[in-house]
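Renewal narrative, Specific Aim 1. Our central claim is that a sequence can be written position by position from structural information alone. The example that follows is taken directly from our test logs and has not been curated for this report. It begins with the structure tokens describing the chain, in the order in which they were read.
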């Protein structure tokens, strides 16, 4: 059997002329943008008059003569587009023999039994393949592609860029340069080619290369591991299930969110896994005591089971299995930017009294944020192990056994809240909770600082000594005005006239209005009163 190290060097013409490349559905879509195409062109152009050029390793599986591309799609597609640009330039300049060589080596093959002419490179997605083949056939970019983020657009744009670069290159001597480019692609551009009939082996090589080199995303590596371990007859089905889940997170703008979801879902059953260890754990490259990864098909089932719920954690306004108080907790945690407890929330879903578990977690999180000790690796580990405990027992009360020692005292909470600098998002949330008497407050009002940070002319306040009080709980108000009036920053009296009167319902406007001056002492006093109210709320029933 061919070993994973057996790779042969082939000129691209030799490889293309003997192959039909199929880009499987489960491969990464074509993603090169103009700057990457430009780099590709520049590298080739700079080598054109010098020596051979090595395009790197491509990994293929052989399926009855079809070469399925495991790694190398971006280079194969872009190289085909360049060859096509050269072909159409040759046609336009009556270089028929040269054009025929490019056509036969890079663009089309002939089925000798049927006389059918077939493309050398085929994309799995029908729309994208139609665009690609139209470009090959006509040499022109389709004009009807509206979605600038689509694969079809990227392919068309890559071709446009290559056409422009080639046209500029040919200006000095079109006849000579066309011949030079054709000879270069035919004889002096090489791939290292690894072909293996066993998909799992091919994917293993792919994984090794990409974890040691430029690398893929963890999402790509996980997908390819899962598909490489999936029986061939199920591969298309598993790919579609995986793709549908991955695409649902694209609204967040990054595959990292999908990976985050995978890690949190796996945590429920397996306990704490560090982000950098996720792939190694699931692919069984790293061993953990008391932890066994789900097999690939079971992993897909697990992800699908949690998928819609996790999307609700990201956006509580969408429909899904969670409802009522749980959605309000999701919204509250999003407002203060806490995601580390999502495995616990996944484990709680569908259990009896799950709202009590959600409430317990929200209160614990807010208490620890106030005392300044939430964001440590050990805390996340504790949360992860607690999620597994909830999952295994089916009882939210194990959270109390697992996490009660993390609860700060009420006195510590109140003392810290009265004087501690807090970021704007959390300060807004806490202020809303106090005014509304709710641990899941409605998003009402815009936070404005009474003494603004950006002024040094405010009577009674000293930038040098009092700045620490700016972002404490005693200095802001919530107002119906989204934008702060300019006069509100002149002094305290102007603030009261222009902004205080626009405070939201239940805002402590009267307590503030009674003050003649606004000093650090006044901020501290009001902060202590507000902190006591917060203590009643966050430690009450």
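The sequence written for that structure reads:
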């Amino acid at each position: 059997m061919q070993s994973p190290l057996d790779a042969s060097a082939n000129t691209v013409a030799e490889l293309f002329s003997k192959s039909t490349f199929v880009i499987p559905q489960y491969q990464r879509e074509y993603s090169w943008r103009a700057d990457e195409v430009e780099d590709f062109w520049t590298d080739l152009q700079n080598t054109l008059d010098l020596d051979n050029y090595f395009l790197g390793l491509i990994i293929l599986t052989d399926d009855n003569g079809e070469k399925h591309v495991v790694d190398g799609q971006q280079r194969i597609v872009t190289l085909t587009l360049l060859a096509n640009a050269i072909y159409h330039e040759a046609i336009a300049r009556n270089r028929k023999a040269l054009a025929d060589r490019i056509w036969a080596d890079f663009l089309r093959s002939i089925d000798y039994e049927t006389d059918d002419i077939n493309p050398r490179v085929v994309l799995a997605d029908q729309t994208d393949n139609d665009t690609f083949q139209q470009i090959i056939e006509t040499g022109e970019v389709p004009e009807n592609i509206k979605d600038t983020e689509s694969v079809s657009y990227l392919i068309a744009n890559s071709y446009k860029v290559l056409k422009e670069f080639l046209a500029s290159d040919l200006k000095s001597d079109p006849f000579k340069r066309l011949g030079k480019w054709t000879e270069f692609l035919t004889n002096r551009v090489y791939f290292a080619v690894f072909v293996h009939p066993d998909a799992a082996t091919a994917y293993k090589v792919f994984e090794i290369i990409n974890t040691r080199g430029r690398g893929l995303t963890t999402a790509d590596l996980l997908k390819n591991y899962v598909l490489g371990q999936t029986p061939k007859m199920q591969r298309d089905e598993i790919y579609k299930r995986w793709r549908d889940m991955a695409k649902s997170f694209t609204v967040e703008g990054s595959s990292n969110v999908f990976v985050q979801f995978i890690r949190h879902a796996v945590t429920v059953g397996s306990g704490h896994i560090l982000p950098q260890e996720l792939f190694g754990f699931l692919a069984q490259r790293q061993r953990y005591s008391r932890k066994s990864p789900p097999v690939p098909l079971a992993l897909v089932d697990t992800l699908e089971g949690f998928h819609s719920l996790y999307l609700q954690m990201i956006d509580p306004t969408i429909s899904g299995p969670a409802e009522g108080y749980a959605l309000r907790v999701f919204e509250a945690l999003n407002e203060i930017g806490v995601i580390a407890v999502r495995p616990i929330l996944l484990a709680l879903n569908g259990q009896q009294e799950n709202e009590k578990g959600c409430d317990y977690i929200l209160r614990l999180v807010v208490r620890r944020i106030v005392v300044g000790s939430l964001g440590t690796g050990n805390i996340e580990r504790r949360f992860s192990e607690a999620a597994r405990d909830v999952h295994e027992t089916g009882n939210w009360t194990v959270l109390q056994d697992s996490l009660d020692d993390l609860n700060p005292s009420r006195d510590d909470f109140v003392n810290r809240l009265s004087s501690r600098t807090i970021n704007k998002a959390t300060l807004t949330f806490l202020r809303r909770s106090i005014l509304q008497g709710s641990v899941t407050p409605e998003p009402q009002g815009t936070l404005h600082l009474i003494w603004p940070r950006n002024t040094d002319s405010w009577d009674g306040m000293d930038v040098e000594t009092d700045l620490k009080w700016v972002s404490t709980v005693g200095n802001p108000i919530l107002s119906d005005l989204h934008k702060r009036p300019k006069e509100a920053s002149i002094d305290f009296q102007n603030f009261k006239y222009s902004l205080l009167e626009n405070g939201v319902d239940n805002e402590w406007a009267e307590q503030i209005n009674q003050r003649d001056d606004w000093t650090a002492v006044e901020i501290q006093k009001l902060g202590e009163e507000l902190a006591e109210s917060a203590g009643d709320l966050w430690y009450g029933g």
